[in-house]
Amino acid sequence: MAASNEINPISIHIPPGLRSLIVPLKQFLVGNKARPKYDMLAVGACIFAPITTDHPKPRILLIQRAATERAFPNLWEVPGGSAEYSDPSILHSVARETFEETGLRLTRLVRQVGDGITFSTRGNKNWIKLSFEIEVAELHGVPIPKAAEGDVSEPVSIKLDPQEHQKHAWVTEDELKQYTATSGPYPSTTEDQYQGILLAFALHDERKGRPEPSDG
Question: Is the dihedral of CA 8, 13, 87, 94 positive or negative?
Answer without folding.
Answer: negative
